[in-house]
Amino acid sequence: MAHSGFLQAAVLLLGVQLLCLGAADADQETGTVIPAESRPCVDCHAFEFMQRALQDLKKTAFNLDARTETLVLRAERRALCDCMPTNSLR
To answer: pTM above 0.70?
Structure first.
């Protein structure tokens, strides 16, 4: 019984997907075509986006590098302080 209900649900979902796909194709066919002269340059926009992403990555890398250096120095200082006896620090 449960197998029959699962099969019916699968067939129903497949039917809905086919209807939606058909409607999407019909919408695309009836749309108007925008001339290439009036469309924005996709390559230019992609290049600008990639430039901004690269700048963000450079900033992130610099911040991580600075943070790593700070943490390494802090760890070295702790290791140095742990090695020295407390009475020699006075």
So the answer is: no
